[in-house]
Design brief:
By secondary structure, this protein is α/β, with parallel strands linked by helices. The protein is built from eleven helices and seven strands. A seven-stranded mixed sheet has the order 3-2-1-4-5-7-6, sandwiched between helices. Helix 6 links the parallel strand 4 and strand 5. The radius of gyration is 18 Å and the shape is globular. The two termini are 34 Å apart.
Length: 286
């Protein structure tokens, strides 16, 4: 995680939206800008979770805090985000202070498996499980269930493989991303994800594929980066030497454009899966 997300906050700020939401946007309306579509995605998640004022809400892998800040400001929840990226952690802490949300929003630098919090009423994990790997998915979903109170809901959002044998991604593209962009990442088909969810005792109540939305999101990121290559080079060079910064920039240009094409072609999918921790209480609908 740190290999990727601690590259440079300023670098990501060049091509992400102002909230730095680094996951698939939701183009609810065709004419939306990237920034509008990212806000629509944040709201799409909050509405699916039926967030209510005063509920305790956990975001596993909170990134630069877009979802927890949106949920607190627009839905009145008591939100907590966790991340393994020190850059993101420091950024979110400052945003919480700037917005005066210290009493309502928290962020921690920790591994989700080490959390000993009381169960939450609502949870989300966006762009996280694709970093976990197939062998670790059972532990991931058992942890989600442990941190979710009976009757509670969680929204799991992540990239999936286009085929059940993961052949559609292409060996060259998969090897490139694994080596230069997301070491340790692994894509699995949504059927395998749902299987491990069920084994962990979570009940899927809704699944939505946003694949076309991610193709458009990635092209927007790619276009934004391509329009500011000299600035990107300067930012990365300040972090390391010129040779390494040039290699990093070329890798990201290939990664963004290649993934955009991958989602266009259906080699990858993007699924949002709404699950509950069954309580047996019919009146709660859980």
């Amino acid at each position: 995680v740190q290999f990727h997300y601690d590259l440079s906050d300023d670098f990501y700020a060049l091509w992400l939206d102002p909230r730095r939401v680094y996951s698939c946007a939701y183009y609810r309306d065709a004419e939306m800008t990237l920034a509008q579509a990212q806000e629509a995605k944040l709201d799409h998640i909050c509405r699916k979770l039926d967030l209510r004022t005063g509920e305790r809400f956990l975001d596993i892998g909170c990134g630069w805090g877009g979802l927890i800040l949106w949920a607190a400001q627009h839905y009145g929840v008591k939100a907590k985000g966790i991340t393994l990226s020190r850059n993101q952690y420091n950024y979110v802490r400052q945003r919480i202070q700037d917005l005066g949300l210290e009493a309502q929003v928290q962020v921690e630098l920790c591994d989700y498996r080490q959390m000993a919090d009381q169960p939450y009423e609502k949870m989300a994990s966006v762009g996280m499980f694709e970093h976990v790997g197939l062998a670790n998915l059972p532990e991931y979903f058992h942890t989600v269930r442990r941190l979710l109170q009976p009757g509670g809901m969680a929204l799991i959002h992540g990239i999936t493989a286009g085929g059940t044998r993961n052949r559609q991604l292409g060996a060259g593209m998969g090897e490139f991303i694994g080596r230069y962009i997301f070491p340790g990442g692994e894509l699995v088909h949504v059927s395998a994800v749902l299987h491990d969810m069920a084994d962990a005792g979570l009940e899927m109540v809704d699944t939505e594929n946003l694949r076309p939305h991610y193709a458009r999101t990635l092209w927007a990121w790619s276009d934004a980066l391509e329009s500011q290559l000299s600035q990107a080079q300067q930012i990365l060079t300040a972090q390391t030497d010129a040779e390494r910064s040039d290699r990093a920039l070329r890798a990201y240009r290939l990664y963004l454009a290649g993934c955009a094409m991958g989602f266009e072609q259906g080699w990858m999918g993007l699924h949002q899966m709404l699950v509950i921790h069954p309580s047996g209480d019919w009146e709660q609908g859980a």
